[in-house]
Write a structure and sequence with these properties.
Two copies of one chain form a homodimer.
Chain A: E1 2-8, H1 14-26, E2 32-37, H2 51-58, E3 62-66, E4 71-75, H3 81-88, E5 95-99, E6 108-112, H4 115-119, E7 127-132, E8 145-147, H5 151-163
């Protein structure tokens, strides 16, 4: 399973880039899985008053529901990223795109809004490429760089960086 | 990880028994996980317009969101029960209570509404005990049997059957 992180500061376009990559790879040969870190202490939205939430309220730490096509698991278990990735490795997927977890050490594509973001890149490890909206940064000579403006036209270039992850 | 199924025909009290057992075991020494089969071709309820559902719409087969305390994984992947249980075995739980999947072969407690249900028990494998609302069935001499009426008073007996799973 290939692993690639998409990270960036707030409002840097992570959601847009993630969905473009999911569409691109899932429409080609690859089975794609995704994992997103819900920042700022938030929680995933869950539907209230289902059997699943009732089980959690009763004390279950992991509550799963399997339907005809969809299965949903909800955990109230602290898991680090490595452990979560281990779960994914038991699923039939070829590519795991991870949104966020900036400080993790997996190969990553970093979205950079401006020169200030650019100056913080030395804090991050394993940068394969960067994407930017700022034309001044397109010709930096530190990282392979793609233009997030007009993502559709640049999707092949971006996909190639993911393949290098 | 101990595994115990709670199965029964429609409206036999599975939900009530499940939640009693979750409360009982999670308030004692055990870390409990649960898995429910959504019968009749239904699907688990999901919150629309989240990043997770957008990833699935874009083609992701497995979409996860990790929050501060809660992690939720949604799969659009056909998985049999054994594969799902393998996922649970990577999580820190001691007891997996499974609601439904009547025809699976794990040790099970069967909830029986009436003599007609009772007559179908030979279709099922690995029955550890049965629970019933029907006083006439309490003294059957085929299976260890507990009374679902007044579940709170009989919870120790029921829990003992789960420990035998």
């Amino acid at each position: 399973m290939k692993i690639c992180q998409i990270v960036g500061y707030k409002n840097s376009g992570k959601t847009t880039v993630m969905n473009s990559l999911i569409r691109y790879f899932s429409s080609s040969e690859m089975k794609v899985g995704t994992l997103k870190h819900h920042g700022h202490g938030g929680e995933p939205e869950v539907v209230d008053n289902t059997d699943s939430t009732t089980h959690i309220e009763s004390g279950s730490l992991v509550s799963g529901v399997q339907g005809e096509n969809t299965t949903q698991l909800t955990f109230e278990v602290k898991m680090n990223l490595d452990k979560l990735i281990q779960l994914y490795s038991n699923l039939p997927i070829d590519l795991l795109l991870i949104e966020g977890y900036k400080n993790a050490s997996y190969p990553k594509i970093v979205l950079v809004k401006n020169e200030q973001d650019f100056s913080h890149l030395s804090d991050l490890s394993n940068i394969i490429a960067i994407g930017t909206w700022d034309e001044k940064l397109l010709n930096n000579n530190k990282f392979p760089t793609f233009n997030i403006n007009n993502l559709d036209a640049n999707i092949e270039q971006l996909a190639e960086y993911v393949r290098r992850c």
